[in-house]
């Protein structure tokens, strides 16, 4: 029993033996976030969407390829009088509306949309890193406190053991204290596992190898005064990438709607042709003649007016507006929740550092 107890305390006080690890010291949280911006693998993938959108912008707003037509014929299978013809035509389609210009604007809006999405990815990554660093620091502090608690309990076990041998203490008290030591050891291993888990998670977010022993100092000092100043929502929204992303989505949907409206009229086709003809002309016989001309083909929007595309664009526009309102409400709720949690945490920490902490220290000193 004693050997098992000593083994548990030894594991708690010394920690598990781990393979060689590479130490990575980051001076503060801001440095850790900047490191993640430069090395995070998922963020690098998201950044490629901007290049993809810029590529679409570069190659948008252009006319379709022209058509070159070449045709010829003869009367070999008819009267076989030696008549023949050769026709060369060049055709190009042109939009009747400002579709090409609007398409360029749509692609430009999509570039802004991709940049806003990347900014939102960066915000979420920074929040994950801050949360992970806080959890890692908390696990380290809990692990340290568990070691100190284990030392105190081990001292109590030794004293109670001596008192039991002299008949001055109950064996039940000794057994209860030993059980508490086992519980402390188990709890310490739990915090140690949390410490390892959070460090691996932090390495993943920072783009570092799993074996890196990353440390980021994070102060846990209690502010002298509780938070009492609320930031207006009008100042928060311009700094929230998710809200800017929602606004960019609305702008992109407006341009998309204009593009679908411009597609109600299909492109007109302009054709320029030259035709060389050799035909029988009585009484002169076979003679050569050349024709040149221009043709214009205008599709009439009698049956298809792109009603489906316009309706879908209108739905997307309304959806973007509803989503923006939802993001605004979400930001407002998140800020109110975070402010209240911070205020409650301050009061709890203030009470813990006050009378409760003084009483715990007095009891510890009296025991020693």
Secondary-structure blueprint:
Elements: H1 2-14, E1 22-25, H2 29-39, H3 41-58, E2 67-74, E3 84-94, H4 99-165, H5 171-206, E4 212-215, H6 233-236, H7 241-262, E5 268-281, E6 285-297, H8 307-367
Parallel strand pairs: 1-4
Antiparallel strand pairs: 2-3, 3-5, 5-6
Distance between the termini: 26 Å
Radius of gyration: 39 Å
Strand portion, in percent?
A: 5-15%
Helix content: 55-70%
Instruction: Give the low-pLDDT segments.
Output: 1-20
Number of strands: 6
Structural class: alpha+beta
The number of distinct helices, counting runs of at least 4 residues, comes to 8
The H-and-E topology, N to C, reads as HEHHEEHHEHHEEH
Please, what is the average pLDDT? 84
What's the overall geometry? elongated
Task: Tell me about the largest β-sheet.
Answer: 4 strands, antiparallel
Question: How do the strands line up in the largest sheet?
Answer: 2-3-5-6
Structural description of this entry:
Helix content is 63%, strand content 15%. The chain is α+β, with helices and mostly antiparallel strands and 368 residues long. The chain has a four-stranded antiparallel beta sheet with strand order 2-3-5-6, with no helix packed on it. It is elongated, with a radius of gyration of 39 Å. The chain starts with a helix and ends with a helix.
